[in-house]
C-alpha cells in the first residue's frame, strides 16, 4: 500500500523565505516551578541541538491568573542574554494581544506597548514572528493592521501571524495588510479535527500560511483517554506507533505532519527527553488507510 509523502525536515514560513523546522517547541510552561536560567538554557539547547529551530512563546505565558505575566519571555530573555550564540540559531516567535483581565486588546496603543515589552523581556532587537494571540472583536482589523505594519517598518518584527483566528478574521486582517501574514496557529490534534473540514487548513494552503498546531496531543487526553472517542483515537494511533516502533505521541505529531498544509506541531513538553523524542515524527510514514482510520475514529462516524 502506497505511503503518503514524508514530512520535510524544514518548511518555509509563509512567503517570507525563512526556513523553520517541521516541528516547533512551545514554552507556555517554561517559567513554571521556579525553573532557573541554567535549566531553561538546557532546554533551549536541547531543542536546537535536536534540529528544532522554531521556538514559540507569548507574553501571557507564565501568568497564573494573578501574577507572572511575561515570565516565560523574561526567562528566555535571560537565556539569550547569557549566550549570544543561541539567537542566530533560532526563529523566535511570540504572541501578544491578551491583556488580563480585559481579556483582549489590539488597539494601536496597546499593541505598540505589548510589542515593545516583549522585545525588552526577550532582550532582542527583533522578533522573527509576532502573532496576534486571540482576536479582539472590538478593534477594527484596519487598526490592528496599521499597528503591525508600523512595527514591521520599524524593524521590530520580521513577519506576522495570527493565533486562534477564524477564517473570516484572518481574511479581514490580511485584506488591510501590505505585509502578508505568514502563519496561523489554531488548536489541531487527532482529537480536535474541526480544521480539516471547516476551511481553516484550506485557507492556509490557499494563502500560503504555515499552520502551527498548539495542543497537538489533545491537552494530554491522548496519553490519558477519558472517553470512548479518546480511546478509539488513541488505539488507532497506537497501532501505527507500534508498527513504526515509536510512541503514540510521536505518531500523533506525524499524523498532523502528513497533511498537505504542512502542519507544524508545537511540542509543549518542558522535559528534554520528550522534546528530542518528538523529532522521530519525521521518520514515520502513513498510508492513506491508516491516516483516515484515525480521522474516522475522531469523527466517531464513518466518512460519507
TrEMBL record:
SUPFAM superfamilies named in the record: NAD(P)-linked oxidoreductase (SSF51430)
Pfam family, one: Aldo_ket_red
PROSITE patterns listed in its UniProt record: ALDOKETO_REDUCTASE_2 (PS00062)
Superkingdom as given in the UniProt entry: Bacteria
Single Gene Ontology MF annotation: oxidoreductase activity
Domain NADP-dependent oxidoreductase: from-to ranges: 23-291
Gene3D superfamilies in alphabetical order: NADP-dependent oxidoreductase domain
Gene Ontology CC: cytosol
Cited InterPro entries: AKR, AKR_Detox_Biosynth, Aldo/ket_reductase_CS, NAD(P)_OxRdtase_dom_sf, NADP_OxRdtase_dom
Protein name (database record): Aldo/keto reductase
Organism: Novosphingobium pentaromativorans US6-1
Taxon lineage: Bacteria, Pseudomonadati, Pseudomonadota, Alphaproteobacteria, Sphingomonadales
Amino acid at each position: 500500500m502506497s505511503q503518503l509523502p514524508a514530512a520535510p525536515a524544514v518548511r518555509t514560513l509563509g512567503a517570507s523565505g525563512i526556513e523553520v523546522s517541521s516541528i516547533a517547541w512551545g514554552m507556555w510552561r517554561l517559567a513554571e516551578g521556579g525553573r532557573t536560567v541554567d535549566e531553561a538554557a538546557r532546554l533551549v539547547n536541547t531543542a536546537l541541538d535536536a534540529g528544532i529551530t522554531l521556538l514559540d512563546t507569548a507574553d501571557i505565558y507564565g501568568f497564573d491568573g494573578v501574577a507572572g505575566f511575561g515570565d516565560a519571555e523574561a526567562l528566555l530573555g535571560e537565556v539569550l542574554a547569557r549566550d549570544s550564540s543561541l539567537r542566530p540559531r533560532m526563529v523566535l516567535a511570540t504572541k501578544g494581544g491578551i491583556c488580563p483581565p480585559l481579556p483582549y486588546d489590539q488597539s494601536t496603543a496597546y499593541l505598540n506597548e505589548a510589542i515593545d515589552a516583549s522585545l525588552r523581556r526577550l532582550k532582542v532587537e527583533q522578533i522573527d514572528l509576532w502573532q496576534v494571540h486571540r482576536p479582539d472583536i472590538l478593534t477594527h482589523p484596519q487598526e490592528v493592521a496599521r499597528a503591525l505594519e508600523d512595527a514591521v517598518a520599524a524593524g521590530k518584527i520580521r513577519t506576522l501571524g495570527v493565533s486562534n483566528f477564524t477564517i473570516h478574521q484572518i481574511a479581514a486582517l490580511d485584506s488591510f495588510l501590505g505585509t502578508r501574514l505568514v502563519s496561523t496557529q489554531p488548536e489541531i490534534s487527532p482529537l480536535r479535527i474541526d480544521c480539516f473540514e471547516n476551511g481553516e487548513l484550506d485557507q492556509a494552503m490557499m494563502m500560503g500560511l504555515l499552520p502551527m498546531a498548539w495542543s497537538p496531543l489533545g491537552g494530554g487526553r491522548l496519553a490519558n483517554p477519558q472517553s470512548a472517542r479518546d480511546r478509539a483515537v488513541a488505539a488507532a494511533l497506537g497501532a501505527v506507533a507500534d508498527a513504526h516502533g515509536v510512541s503514540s505521541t510521536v505518531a500523533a505529531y506525524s499524523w498532523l505532519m502528513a497533511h498537505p498544509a504542512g502542519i507544524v506541531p508545537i511540542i509543549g513538553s518542558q522535559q528534554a527527553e520528550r522534546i528530542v523524542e518528538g523529532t522521530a515524527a519525521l521518520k514515520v510514514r502513513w498510508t492513506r488507510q491508516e491516516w483516515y482510520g484515525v480521522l474516522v475514529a475522531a469523527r466517531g462516524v464513518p466518512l460519507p
